[in-house]
Amino acid sequence: MVFKFHEEKKGKIEIKPKVNICNNKNLCLAYTPGVAEISKVLAKNPNLAYKYTIKGNSVAIVTDGSAVLGLGNIGPYPAIPVMEGKSVIFKNYANIDAFPVCLNTQDPDEIVKIVENISPIFGGINLEDISAPNCFEVERKLKKSLDIPIFHDDQHGTAIVVLAGLINALKLVDKKFENIKVVISGSGAAGIAILKLLHAKGVRKIVMLDSRGVISEKRKDLPKHKKELFKIIDKDSSDFGVKEAFNRADVLIGVSKGGVVKAHDIKAMNQDPIVLALANPIPEIMPEIAKKAGAKIIATGRSDYPNQLNNALVFPGFFRGLLDTREKNITQKMKINAAHALAGVTIKPTINNIIASIFNKKVVPAIAQAVRKSVK
Amino acid sequence: MVFKFHEEKKGKIEIKPKVNICNNKNLCLAYTPGVAEISKVLAKNPNLAYKYTIKGNSVAIVTDGSAVLGLGNIGPYPAIPVMEGKSVIFKNYANIDAFPVCLNTQDPDEIVKIVENISPIFGGINLEDISAPNCFEVERKLKKSLDIPIFHDDQHGTAIVVLAGLINALKLVDKKFENIKVVISGSGAAGIAILKLLHAKGVRKIVMLDSRGVISEKRKDLPKHKKELFKIIDKDSSDFGVKEAFNRADVLIGVSKGGVVKAHDIKAMNQDPIVLALANPIPEIMPEIAKKAGAKIIATGRSDYPNQLNNALVFPGFFRGLLDTREKNITQKMKINAAHALAGVTIKPTINNIIASIFNKKVVPAIAQAVRKSVK
C-alpha cells in the first residue's frame, strides 16, 4: 500500500510555476530580458528578495539523516521521503514552500557551512532529524550567522506540542505547573528541549532519565551538553534511582524508545498520573497497560490512539508566524504562547481529547497568530 | 510592469503536494508512520530513491551569482529571480522539478563540496551563470564525484543552440561545416564550449577573439584554460590581427558583449555571411547594421528579432532525455545529435526562420528523443 502510494507519483512534491509563460510577453517578463530589471534592483538591495522572489515564503527542511524517524542513522536517501512528507504538510496546512535538503555529510561544521551558503533563497530553516549533540551545535551556529529563523523541529516542535497537551491535561486533573513533578524518559534532542521549555513554564521538579539511569551530578559518564542540564533538573534527583524517579511523579513524558516504562513505574506515580508516551511507532508503555496500571490521561505519538501529540500540529503554524513577521529570534515565551494557542483550540478538553486533531483547521491560524503576537 | 509581475505573486514558483493528505489514512502513508517503510527500503538500497521520491525528476539549478545574465558578478540574491524563471521553463516545457540553489560563495571547491552534499535528492545538476574559469573546474570535479549528470547550461546549452542554428543557416547558403571559416567573438564559458562543439562537428578553421585580440600562441597573457584551446583553433590564427580574423570568414558567432563588432568586420567576410550576434540584451552588432553591411542570415538572443537563439530551446528537452535515461555521461555526440534534432524541427528553414520558436511544442520531445537515442 505505502509502496504503491509512493511509486505511483514518484515522489510527493513538485515544483510548479505560479505564473503563466504561454506567450512571449510573459516569458520576457518571467525570464530574460525582463527579469534583469529585478536582478539589478536586488543587486543594490538583496533584502528586496522578500518582495520579488519566493524567499519570504520558503523554508529549507535540512537533515543529515542521522536520526530519521525512530530508525536511527540511516543517511540522506531514506530521509528524502520523510522530508517530502513534511513539505506536503507545510504546503497543505500553512501554504509554505518547503524544500528538502538531505545532506550527504554529518559533520556539524560542514552542515553549518552548507546551510549558510544555500540560505539566500530561504526565509527560514527547519532543522530535522539531526541527532544530538550535533543538532545543538548546528542550531546555535546558524542562529548566530544567519538573519532568518532557525527551528529544530525535533526539539522545539516536540516541546511545544508536549506543553500544549500538558496544559489541557493538568486542567483535567486540577494540578498546576508550579507544583507538579515530571519525569522525562529520554535525554536526546526532544527530551532536552522539553526539559527547558517546562522549566521556562515554571515547572521546578523535573527528573530526567537516559538509557543509563537518572541524570544527576553523581553521574561521571555524562557528555558536556547533559551536564549543562544540572542547573534546571530537580536537585533531589542525585539521590534517585530510576525507581525513586517515578515515585509520586505527576507526569511522565517519554521521548526515548518503545517499552522502557513498566506498569510498576506508573503504579508508583502520584494520584491521576499523566502519561505522554511519545516514542514511535512503539510507545514507552502501551496505552492499555498504562491505563490498567492507573494512568488517568494517556497520550502517544500515534494516530490510532486518542490524544495524538504530533509535532505536525506545530511546525506549519509556527513557521507561518515566523515568515509573516520575518522574525529570526525564537524565544521560550514565543513557544509557550504557541503551546497555549494550540491547547486553546480544544475548548473543552476531555480525558480522551486533550489536543486538537491535525485536521482541525483552527490549529495553524491559532499558532501563527500566537507567534505573530509574540513578536514585538 | 516587470516589477508588478514579480511582486504580485512574490516569486514565480511554488512547492506543491502531488498527493492528497486530507484524511488520516493518507497522512499516515505520506508521513509517519507509513513513510518509515519507504525509508527502511532506501536505507538498504539508496538507488530506489529514483522509484519512491522526486529524485528521478528533479534538477538543482546551481549558481554562485558570478555571471548573472549579462549583468556580471552581482551575487546570489539577484540570481534568485533568474533561476526561478528557469525553474518555470523547466516545469512548463519538460515537466521537470527544478529548484534554484543560489550560493553565497564563489569558491569553486566550496561550490563542489556543497553540490556533492545536497545531491541526494537531485537527478541532475544544471550549473548556471558561474563565470569562467571557475565553471570549468566546478563542472569537471562534479562530473568526477557524482553519479548524476552535470550540465553547465551557459556552455553546453548555448553551444547546442548555436550549432542547431548553424546547421540550418549553412543549408540556406549551401556551405559545409568542413569548409567554413568561423570567428568566435568572446572566449568565456559559452565561446569555449561553442569552439569545442564546432570542432567536434568537423569545423577546422576557427578563429577565437577575446577582449584583447586573437587567441594564439603568440599571446603571452593567456590563462591556462585558454592556452588549452591552441590545439583546436586555426593554426593560421597566430598571424592574424582582429582585422584578418574576419577576412573571408563565413560565420561570426558573438558571445561577448554589445557593439564590439562593426560594419567593416561584416564587410570583410566571405560571400553570404552568417552573423549570430548573441550578446544580451545588446548584440555584438545590431541586426539592421549587420544587414546593411551584407550579412545574409542574422540571429540574436532576443525575442524581438527573427532567429532567436536562446538556450531555453535546449535545456528542458536535454535534461528530459538525461533524466529519462539516468545517463550521467554527456558526450559531444549527444550534443550534436540534440542540435540536429532541434534544427530538424524547422523543416523548411528560411533566412528569417532558421530555428523553431521556444513555444513550438515539438522542440522538447525532439531534443529529449535525440538524447535518449544517444545513450547506448
Structure summarized in a few sentences:
The model of chain A has no long low-confidence stretch (mean pLDDT 96). Helix content of chain A is 43%, strand content 13%.
Assembly form of the protein = homodimer
Question: Structural class, from secondary structure content of chain A?
Answer: alpha/beta
Shape of chain A: elongated
Give, in spatial order, the strands making up the sheet with the most strands of chain A: 8-7-6-9-10-11
- First CA to last CA of chain A: what distance? 48 Å
Uncertain runs of chain A are none
Main interface: chain pair and counts: A-B, 98 and 98 residues
Beta strand % of chain A: 5-15%
- The number of E-state strands of chain A comes to 11
In round numbers, the mean pLDDT of chain A is 96
Q: What is the radius of gyration of chain A computed over CA atoms, rounded to a whole number of angstroms? A: 22 Å
Task: Please bin the fraction of helical residues of chain A.
Answer: 40-55%
Order of helices and strands of chain A: HEHHHEHEHEHEHEHEEHHEHEHEHHH
Continuous helix count of chain A: 16
Notable characteristics:
homodimer; 376 residues; alpha/beta; 6-stranded mixed β-sheet; 4-stranded parallel β-sheet; 16 helices; 11 strands; 43% helix; 13% strand
Overview of the molecule:
- The structure is a homodimer of 376-residue chains.
- Chain A contains 16 helices and eleven strands.
- The first copy, chain A, has 376 residues and is α/β, with parallel strands linked by helices.
- In chain A, strands 8-7-6-9-10-11 form a six-stranded mixed beta sheet. In chain A, strands 3-2-4-5 form a four-stranded parallel beta sheet, sandwiched between helices.
- The first copy, chain A, is elongated, with a radius of gyration of 22 Å.
- The relative contact order of chain A is 0.11.
- Chains A and B meet through helix 1, strand 1, helix 2, helix 3 and helix 4 of A and helix 1, strand 1, helix 2, helix 3 and helix 4 of B.
- Strand 1 (13-17) of chain A pairs antiparallel with strand 1 of chain B.
